[in-house]
Design a protein that fits this description.
Structural class: alpha/beta
Radius of gyration: 17 Å
Order of helices and strands: EEEHEHEHEHHHEHEHH
Number of strands: 8
Largest sheet: 8 strands, mixed
Strand content: 15-25%
Distance between the termini: 33 Å
Protein name: Alpha/beta hydrolase
InterPro entries: AB_hydrolase (IPR050471), AB_hydrolase_1 (IPR000073), AB_hydrolase_fold (IPR029058)
Keywords: Hydrolase, Membrane, Transmembrane, Transmembrane helix
Number of helices: 9
CATH class: Alpha Beta
GO molecular function, one term: triacylglycerol lipase activity
Number of domains: 1
Helix content: 40-55%
CATH architecture: 3-Layer(aba) Sandwich
């Protein structure tokens, strides 16, 4: 399905029924990367799985790609679907989008789970960022040849130059937030703890031997932790 929101066609899929749960994928992916999460959570929630701007079957548009505009895309989609309040699971870059959504409209979010998520571009470990820099350089050279490389350049640019969320902005997030990080993630546990301490109601879970790819590496453990968090009283 597609909706024209915030100046672009945004692709989304809805699975199951119940309370709305938004699923947001990582950089360079589409909603299909979260198939295991869709299959698990659709049994209890109305899962809204979105291809974020410039990813999957969603348009890139002509505005510079950043997480704030991507967050507005999702909020506009929820308006289009007439959804007032929601839960959200954001993986990697999807978690950054979820943070920006909560900063824009804090009262609308019921609960948020972010997985392997940073709130500042400098928090990605240097050795992991090398691949983004190389990809961005070659995509920049090839952009005049194909729209495909324009998308790749925009995606790589997200990881290199964004986000820059201030801790004072995180303090506006009032919904309960769970930050999950792998023991060997490219995002450090120290930075994840700073994020958790900055929001009003945050908690953190570290998955033993986990990497940045928890959605594929340890889905059962991941789902159990999230389900337990969602079962908590949010009043």
């Amino acid at each position: 399905m597609k909706a024209y929101v915030n100046g672009i066609e945004l692709s989304y899929h809805i699975y199951g029924s119940g309370e709305p749960l938004v699923l947001l994928h990582g950089n360079g992916q589409s909603h299909g990367a979260l198939k295991r999460q869709i299959d698990f959570f659709r049994k209890r929630y109305q899962v809204i799985a979105v291809d974020s701007r410039g990813h999957g079957k969603s348009e890139l548009g002509f505005r510079p790609l950043d997480f704030q505009v991507m967050a507005l895309d999702i909020l506009c989609l929820l308006d289009f679907l007439k959804i007032d309040t929601y839960r959200v699971i954001g993986y990697s870059d999807g978690g950054i989008i979820a943070l920006e959504m909560a900063i824009y409209q804090p009262k609308r979010q019921k609960q948020m789970v972010v997985i392997g998520t940073n709130y500042d571009a400098n928090q990605i470990k240097w050795w992991a960022n090398i691949f983004s820099v190389v990809g961005y350089f070659f995509a920049s050279l090839l952009t005049p040849l194909s729209f495909f490389f324009r998308r790749i350049k925009a995606q790589m640019g997200l990881m290199i130059f964004y986000p820059h969320i201030k801790e004072e902005e995180l303090a506006n997030i009032s919904a309960p937030m769970l930050a999950i990080v792998g023991e060997y993630d490219v995002i450090s546990r120290a930075d994840t703890k700073k994020m958790v301490d900055s929001v009003q109601r945050g908690e953190m879970a570290v998955i033993h031997n986990g990497t940045h790819f928890l959605i594929r590496q340890k889905p059962r453990e991941l789902h159990d932790i999230i389900a337990s968090f969602f079962d908590k009283d949010v009043t």
